[in-house]
C-alpha cells in the first residue's frame, strides 16, 4: 500500500497557505461583495470522489488531498453503492469493474442486470459481501488519461471510513435506488438506520421517488438535491424525460432544495464545441428557491474552445457572471476550482504585475490564432504579453517576414499549393518541406496561414478551428512598426539558418535584421536577439543594448562548470526547454530539478523557459492538469526570468493575481518536484529513459558564419531591393531600351568580324 501519511506530509507542506505550521489553511477574508448565489456565499466546491483527477476516486488519499488543498469550502462527494450485506461503499459507477480490479480477482463472477431499462453487464457490489470487497479488491483509475501508477494500491472506502476523517461537509450521491430496491436492498433504510444521517450535509439522487421518501426522514440540516441526467434519459419514478421535468422547477422545490445539472444545461456548447448564449436556468431556479450545482468539470477533458484549454477559464465562466453564477461546482480537480474562486474571481488581474517574470510570446498568441499573424500578435497584446516575438524567415527575393519555421508546411497552406517545390534540406531539417527561401514574397503572400495544433492528431486537442486560416503573415518591418505602437515592453527576434542562407542561398540574414531594427528605431524598447547559433549572437555584440539569448532546443540535464563562462561570451541569457529545468519521467511525473537554472543565475545569466502550453496532455501530473499550477512552480520553485508561451493570457492572469505572492494569506504554491514519484512503487513505473546530455563548452561554440555567396539569378538580373522588401522589377520602358541596346551591340560586333575576315 502507498504510504499515505508520508505522502500527505510531503504534499501538504507546500500546498497550504502560510499558517506557521500544519492544520487547516488560512481562510480568506470575507469577500467585499455578496455573491449572486442563493445563500450569498461563494460557490461550494464539490469534490467528486475526492481528488479523483489524480488518485483513484474516494480513496483515503483522494479524500485527504481534496480537503487539504483548498481555500474555500469543499464537500466530499461519495457515490453510494451497497454490498450484499448492506454496507455502503464509495464507488461512482454501479459496475465495480470500471474503477476497481474486481474483474481480475473474480474473473468468472460477472452478472447482467436490467437497470433503468437497459441490460448492463459487469461486477456489482450487491453480489459480494463487504469483507470480500474490502479484503481483496483495490481501486484503479477509471479514466485512462489519468495516472495508473496508483492502481491496485488503495482500498475501497466505506462510508464509515469517510465519516471518520471528519470532513466538514459530506455529500452522498444515490443514483440507483430503484435497482437496489428491486434486489431487496434499501438505500433509504441504510442511510436512516445505519448511518443515521450523521455528518451528511447533502444527499443527491436522479430518482424522484427516493428523494420524496428521504424528505420524510432527513433532518432539516440535510439538503436534498435532485440530479438531472441527460435530457433524453427517463427518470425511473415518473417515467418522464429529464428535459420535461426541468420545465417545472416549482414542482422540484416540493422535494428538493437544489438541483445538479450538467454544465451544458447552463452554458450550451454547439456541435463545433463553442459556447452558445447561456440559458436562464440559474436565474429561474434561484427564483424558485432552488440552488444550482453544475457538474462535469474535469481539467483533463476536452472543453469548449472558448476556454483555450484553461480549466480556470471554465470555472470562472460559471462564477463571474451574476445571472449564471452557480451555487456549487462538481469537479474531479477540486484544488483548481478552489483556486479559481479564491484567486481569480475578482478583477485583480487588472493590477500591475506582482513579479518581474517576463511573458514572452511564441509566435504571438498562437494558441488562439495561427502563429505569427497580425491576429496572433493583436491577441498577444490584448492578453498582456510583455514581449512579442518574430522568428525571422527570408523569401527567395530577400523579404524578411515572421514565421515559426523556414518550412512553411506546418503553419501555412504551402504544401498543397507548392508541392512541386518541396525539397529535403538536411542542413535545415530532417524532413522534406516547402521552404520560404525557395519562394518569392509574392508567392508566400498567396498562402493562407494555418492553425498549428501540436497535439491535435494524437489527442483531439485542436486549437480554435474557427480561426484555422485567419490572419495574414507580417513582414519584419511591419512587425516592428506594430510593436512600436503597442503597450509592450519589447520584442524578441529569433534567427535561425543564417549560415545556410548565406552560403547556399546568397541571403544575408544578419544584415537584413540589423537594418530593419535600426530603421525601426526601437530606442525605448527592449530588443532580444535569440538564436541557437553562437556565431549569430556574436554579430550583435554591443549593438544598441540588445539582450542576446542562446537557445538550447534539446533538453539538457546539467551544466558543466566551464559552460556558463563560455555562454557569457555570446549571450546574456539562455532559452531552455521545460524538461531542462524539471526532469519528467516517462510516466509524466516530475522527477527532479536540474542544476541548469542555479548555475546560470550564479553566472548572472537569465533563464527563459519554453514552451508553455495550456493543453493538459502537455502538463505533468504533478501540476494537476492545470497550466497555472505549472506556471506557479516555475515562478516560485525555480524563479525563472520569463516564460515563452503560446497562451499569454494564462500567464498574465496568474502574474497579476495577489495569489502569486507567497507572503499573502492565499497563494498558489508550487508542486513539490518529485514528491509524487517517490511514493509510487517502482513496479508501477515505466522503464527509465537515458538522461539528456549535459551542456559543455563544445556544445556552445559554433563555427564562424560563412560569407554571403552570390547565387546565379534565374532569368533577368534585376538589382536587389532594400532589406525587408521585394526586389524591384524593371519597368517596361527600361526593359525595351535594354533589349534594343543589346541588339545594336550584337549587329555592330557581327559587322566588325565580317570586315576583319575580308
What does this structure look like?
There is one protein chain. This protein is α/β, with parallel strands linked by helices and 758 residues long. It is 28% helix and 15% strand. It is built from 27 helices and 22 strands. The strands form four sheets. Strands 12-22-21-18-17-16-15-13-14 form a nine-stranded mixed β-sheet. Strands 1-2-6-7-8-9-10-11 form an eight-stranded parallel beta barrel, surrounded by five helices. A two-stranded antiparallel sheet has the order 4-5. Helix 18 (476-484) packs parallel to helix 20. Its EC number is 3.1.4.46.
Structural key phrases:
disordered C terminus; 758 residues; 22 strands; single chain; 9-stranded mixed β-sheet; 8-stranded parallel barrel; disordered N terminus; alpha/beta
List the helices and strands and how they pair.
Blueprint (H helix, E strand, L loop, with lengths): L3 H9 L31 E5 L11 H9 L5 E9 L5 E3 L11 H4 L5 E5 L2 E5 L7 H7 L22 H6 L5 E4 L3 H6 L4 H9 L6 E4 L2 H10 L5 E5 L14 H4 L3 H4 L5 E5 L18 H7 L3 E7 L13 H7 L10 E4 L2 H11 L13 E4 L12 H9 L4 E8 L5 E3 L11 H4 L23 H5 L10 H4 L16 H9 L5 E6 L2 H7 L4 H12 L5 E6 L2 H5 L8 E5 L11 H5 L5 E5 L4 E3 L5 E4 L2 H7 L3 E7 L14 H12 L3 E4 L2 H9 L18 H4 L53 H26 L1
Parallel strand pairs: 1-2, 1-11, 2-6, 6-7, 7-8, 8-9, 9-10, 10-11, 12-22, 13-15, 15-16, 16-17, 17-18, 18-21, 21-22
Antiparallel strand pairs: 2-3, 4-5, 13-14, 19-20
GO molecular function, one term: glycerophosphodiester phosphodiesterase activity
Keywords: Glycerol metabolism, Glycoprotein, Hydrolase, Membrane, Signal, Transmembrane, Transmembrane helix
Catalytic activity: a sn-glycero-3-phosphodiester + H2O = an alcohol + sn-glycerol 3-phosphate + H(+)
Amino acid at each position: 500500500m502507498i504510504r499515505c501519511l508520508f505522502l500527505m506530509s510531503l504534499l501538504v507542506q507546500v500546498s497550504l497557505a502560510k499558517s506557521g505550521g500544519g492544520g487547516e489553511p488560512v481562510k480568506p477574508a470575507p469577500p467585499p461583495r455578496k455573491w449572486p448565489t442563493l445563500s450569498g456565499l461563494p460557490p461550494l466546491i464539490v469534490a467528486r470522489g475526492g481528488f479523483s483527477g489524480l488518485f483513484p476516486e474516494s480513496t483515503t488519499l483522494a479524500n485527504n488531498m481534496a480537503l487539504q488543498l483548498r481555500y474555500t469550502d469543499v464537500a466530499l462527494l461519495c457515490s453510494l453503492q451497497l454490498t450484499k450485506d448492506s454496507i455502503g461503499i464509495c464507488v461512482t459507477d454501479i459496475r465495480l469493474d470500471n474503477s476497481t480490479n474486481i474483474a481480475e480477482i473474480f474473473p468468472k463472477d460477472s452478472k447482467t442486470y436490467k437497470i433503468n431499462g437497459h441490460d448492463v453487464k459487469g461486477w456489482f457490489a450487491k453480489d459480494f459481501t463487504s469483507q470480500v470487497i474490502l479484503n481483496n479488491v483495490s481501486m484503479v483509475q477509471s479514466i485512462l488519461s489519468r495516472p495508473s501508477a496508483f492502481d491496485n494500491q488503495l482500498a475501497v472506502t466505506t462510508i464509515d471510513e469517510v465519516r471518520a476523517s471528519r470532513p466538514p461537509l459530506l455529500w452522498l450521491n444515490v443514483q440507483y435506488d430503484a435497482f437496489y430496491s428491486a434486489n431487496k436492498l434499501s438505500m433509504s433504510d441504510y442511510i436512516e438506520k445505519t448511518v443515521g444521517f450523521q455528518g451528511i450535509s447533502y444527499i443527491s439522487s436522479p430518482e424522484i421517488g427516493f428523494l420524496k421518501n428521504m424528505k420524510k426522514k432527513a433532518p432539516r440540516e440535510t439538503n436534498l438535491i435532485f440530479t438531472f441526467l441527460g435530457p433524453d434519459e427517463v427518470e425511473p419514478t415518473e417515467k418522464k424525460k429529464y428535459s420535461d421535468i426541468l420545465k417545472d422547477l416549482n414542482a422540484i422545490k416540493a422535494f428538493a432544495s437544489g438541483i445538479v445539472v450538467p454544465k451544458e444545461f447552463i452554458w450550451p456548447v454547439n456541435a463545433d464545441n463553442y459556447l452558445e448564449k447561456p440559458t436562464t436556468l440559474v436565474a429561474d431556479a434561484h427564483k424558485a428557491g432552488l440552488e444550482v450545482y453544475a457538474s462535469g468539470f474535469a481539467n483533463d477533458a476536452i472543453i469548449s474552445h472558448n476556454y483555450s484549454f484553461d480549466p480556470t477559464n471554465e470555472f470562472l465562466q460559471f462564477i463571474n457572471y451574476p445571472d449564471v453564477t452557480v451555487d456549487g461546482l462538481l469537479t474531479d480537480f477540486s484544488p483548481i476550482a478552489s483556486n479559481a474562486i479564491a484567486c481569480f474571481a475578482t478583477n485583480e488581474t487588472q493590477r500591475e504585475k506582482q513579479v518581474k517574470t517576463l511573458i514572452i510570446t511564441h509566435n504571438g498568441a498562437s494558441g488562439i490564432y495561427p502563429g505569427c499573424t497580425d491576429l496572433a500578435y493583436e491577441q498577444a497584446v490584448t492578453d498582456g504579453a510583455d514581449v512579442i516575438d518574430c522568428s525571422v524567415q527570408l523569401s527567395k527575393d530577400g523579404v524578411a517576414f515572421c514565421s515559426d519555421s523556414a518550412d512553411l508546411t506546418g503553419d501555412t497552406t504551402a504544401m498543397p499549393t507548392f508541392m512541386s517545390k518541396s525539397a529535403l534540406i538536411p542542413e535545415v531539417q530532417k524532413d522534406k518541406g516547402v521552404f520560404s527561401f525557395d519562394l518569392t514574397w509574392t508567392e508566400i503572400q498567396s498562402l493562407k496561414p494555418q492553425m498549428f495544433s501540436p497535439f491535435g492528431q494524437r489527442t483531439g486537442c485542436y486549437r480554435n478551428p474557427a480561426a484555422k486560416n485567419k490572419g495574414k503573415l507580417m513582414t519584419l518591418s511591419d512587425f516592428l512598426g506594430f510593436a512600436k505602437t503597442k503597450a509592450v515592453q519589447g520584442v524578441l527576434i529569433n534567427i535561425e539558418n543564417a549560415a545556410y542562407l548565406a552560403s547556399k542561398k546568397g541571403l544575408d540574414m544578419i544584415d537584413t535584421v540589423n537594418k530593419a531594427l535600426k530603421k525601426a528605431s526601437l530606442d525605448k524598447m527592449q530588443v532580444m536577439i535569440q538564436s541557437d547559433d553562437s556565431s549569430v549572437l556574436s554579430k550583435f555584440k554591443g549593438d544598441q543594448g540588445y539582450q542576446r539569448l542562446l537557445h538550447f532546443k534539446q533538453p539538457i540535464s546539467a551544466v558543466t562548470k566551464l559552460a556558463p563562462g563560455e555562454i557569457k561570451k555570446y549571450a546574456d541569457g539562455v532559452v531552455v526547454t521545460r524538461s531542462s529545468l524539471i526532469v519528467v519521467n516517462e510516466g509524466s511525473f516530475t522527477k527532479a530539478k536540474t542544476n541548469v537554472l542555479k548555475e546560470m543565475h550564479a553566472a548572472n545569466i537569465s533563464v527563459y523557459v519554453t514552451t508553455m502550453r495550456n493543453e493538459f496532455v502537455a502538463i505533468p501530473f504533478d501540476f494537476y492538469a492545470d497550466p497555472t499550477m505549472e506556471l506557479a512552480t516555475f515562478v516560485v520553485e525555480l524563479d525563472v526570468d520569463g516564460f515563452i508561451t503560446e497562451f499569454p493570457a494564462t500567464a498574465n492572469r496568474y502574474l497579476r493575481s495577489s495569489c502569486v505572492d507567497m507572503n499573502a494569506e492565499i497563494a498558489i504554491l508550487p508542486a513539490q518536484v518529485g514528491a509524487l514519484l517517490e511514493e509510487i512503487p517502482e513496479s508501477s513505473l515505466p522503464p527509465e529513459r537515458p538522461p539528456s546530455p549535459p551542456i559543455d563548452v563544445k556544445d556552445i561554440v559554433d563555427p564562424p558564419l560563412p560569407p554571403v555567396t552570390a547565387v546565379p539569378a534565374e532569368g533577368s538580373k534585376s538589382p536587389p531591393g532594400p532589406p525587408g522588401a521585394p526586389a524591384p522589377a524593371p519597368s517596361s520602358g527600361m526593359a525595351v531600351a535594354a533589349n534594343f541596346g543589346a541588339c545594336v551591340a550584337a549587329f555592330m560586333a557581327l559587322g566588325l568580324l565580317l570586315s576583319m575576315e575580308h
